[in-house]
Structures are given as C-alpha cells and as structure tokens.
Amino acid sequence: MQIASKTNDWRTPQNFLLIISIVVPIAFASWQALLNNFVIEEAAFTGADIGLLQSVREIPGFLAFTAIFILLFIREQKFIIASLAMLAIGVAITGFFPSVFGLLCTTLLMSVGFHYFETLKQSLSLQWLTKEEAPEVLGKLISVGALASLCTYGVLWVLLEQFELAFKWVYFIAGTVSFALVAFIAIAFPQFKSATPQNKKLILRKRYWLYYALTFMSGARRQIFVVFAGFLMVEKFHYSAADITLLFLINYTFNWLFAKKIGQIIGKVGERKALMFEYTGLILVFVGYAFVEQAEWAAALYVVDHLFFALALAIKTYFQKIADPADMASTAGVAFTINHIAAVVIPVTFGLLWLTSPASVFIVGAIMAILSLLLSLNIPAKPEEGNEVRVLSWG
After folding, report:
1. pTM exceeds 0.85, yes or no
2. Is the model's pLDDT at 394 over the cut of 60?
3. Tell me: the pLDDT tens digits for 348-368?
4. Disulfide: which of 93, 102, 113, 177 matches 86 by Cβ 3.0-4.6 Å?
5. Same structural domain for residues 166 and 311?
6. Domain final residue pick, 159, 176, 195
7. How many CB atoms lie within 10 A of CB 242?
8. What is the CATH classification number for the domain harbouring 120?
9. Which of 164, 195, 226 delimits the end of a domain?
10. Residue 227: what pLDDT?
11. Lowest-confidence range among 93-107, 116-130, 223-237, 365-379?
12. Is 346 found in the same domain as 228?
C-alpha cells in the first residue's frame, strides 16, 4: 500500500474507506427515501418546486472541480471528514425546515458535503490502494455501502410504520447517527500519508481524453437509469411506492452479494473486457426498456441495469493505471464535474423527448451505450502511463 501508517492495528486506510462508505448510505439513503413524501405532505411542493430542488442538488456535483482549490488549505483526509459532517448536518436538520426556501438551503448543504465526499473518496482510494488490489477493494466498498443501505431502509420502515415517527425526527436520527460515525472516524484514525504529493491545481491532460469521455458517458447512462427507468415503472406499469422500494431492496441485495466478486473479475479480465461486457449488456437493457410490455420483465431489466453499475468501477481503475500518481486529487474533481454535465443536460432534453415518445429516450440511450462500447474498445489490454489508448493518442 502506498502509504505510511503509524499503526499496525485495525486503523488502516482500507478500514477508513470502509467506514466512510457506511456513513453516506445512512444519511443520503434516508434523505432520498423520505424526500418525495416529505415535500408533498409537509412542504406542499408542486412539480416545479421539486424540479428546482433537484436542480439545486446537482449544482455542487457540477462544481466538484473546486475541491482542488480547497485542498490548498486543508488535507484531503480532513476535508473528507468535514464533507461527511456537512452531509450529516444537512440531513439532520432537513425536517425542521418544511418550506421551499428551507429545503433549498438544507439540500444545498447536504449536497455540497455529498459531492465533495464522492470526489475525495475516489481520489484517496486511488492513492491509497495499489493497482492490484484496487478493483477488489472498490467492489468491496460498493458491497459494504449496499449492505448499509439495506439496513437503513429496514430501520426507516420500523421508525415510520411501527413507531410512527414524524419525518423531522426520522431525518434527525439519520443525520445524528451519521454525524456520530463521522466523529468516531475523526477521533479514531491517524492521518495517513500518500506516497505522492498531489498537484494543487486544475489539470486537463490530452492523454486522459479516453477517461474523460468514458466518465461523461457514464454520467449520461446514470441519468437515464435514475430519471427515466424509474419513471417508466410508475407511468407505464403503475408500480407503487412500495413496489419501487422493493426493487431498490433487490438492487442493493445484489450489490451486497456480488459487487466484491465483480471487482475481483475486473482485476482478472481487465478494464477493457469488463466495460465491453457492461456496454453490450446496456445496449440490450435500453432496447428492452423501449419495447417491454410486461411489468415483470421491466422489473428484471431494472435490476440488471442497476447491477451493471458495479462494472463502472473499471473506469476508475483504468485511470489509476494510466495516470500520474500526483494527478489523482485534481482529476477526481474534474471527472466528477464532467460526469455531472450530463446531469444538467439530459433530464431536461430527454424529458422533452419523453413527451413525444418514451421509447425514443431508451433508443437514444442504446445509441449512447453503443458509443460507450466503441470507446471501451480503445482501452489497451494492459493500460499504463505511456500506453493510455490503442489509437488516437494525443500526447
């Protein structure tokens, strides 16, 4: 491992990454699971209000590149703890401000913490993990997060159905538990040192162009799943909120069971083959969404679609292999911003297309998956510095 640790006990960088991977599912899954009911029942939101709220939520993701400027004043490990604290506090106070303005403020606070956390987690993971262990460990982090999400959904159900707690107290409990975990992390773990000092400026390198392209397409693919696949379930097949929750539980169960194994497979077969398999599968899934007529088959597509997300960690390990080790922090912020360009553009543009033909949204998604497949073909069998792509190397 590329770090110098002051202890040989359980307080290792891997365990640090594992525990921080538990905090976000507790906080963010709670926020997300309760949001629609809370804003309608307590804050009297209209469709325009929820659209505004979701747009505000995405702004910090688009501005994730600013993390590199903050790193001029604070070390990454302390910054990630501060980000988790912002996320936890934002969730804890959400229920106490049931108005449009109040929710915009708490959501912005929560989202800033969440998006900085995701940016820094990628950076630290790629710095702290060796190239050999990264695929398996990143898969393990997904698995742990999925298990934490499953437990969180179960606790939420008990608090709401059995104890009949008000939304504000459920939010408060989720945020407080998350904050307590953050405090434990801050106190328990020593400061780990990376073997390579990080560049503290924005960096865009021509030789990373394939990574940038794959990252953008990954963001586009995520929006189709998050925004339109779920909407299809409700609009066309009349799935209830309970049905959608059950699908999420199935999805997280699969991630818990298989994400680590998927990481191991990526480590064995390589990023090129893993991404080729993912995008080939996505082409079939998106075409299936376009023409499916049975609710059961739609649900199966939804679960398979979500399972493919674990394969996307191959994009991160590909970058780790081709990158200058000093570029991890800077490029993590740039990549998160590139990923969120799609989050700004696709919901609006594809939403207009949906009004004309919902099937067309998924046909375009299939075309995007084909483009992603073509991009993945350009990954070398053994990517490394100086061997970033098979063709179109721009220096």
Report:
1. no
2. no
3. 778 788 888 889 989 999 999
4. 113
5. no
6. 195
7. 8
8. 1.20.1250.20
9. 195
10. 76
11. 223-237
12. yes
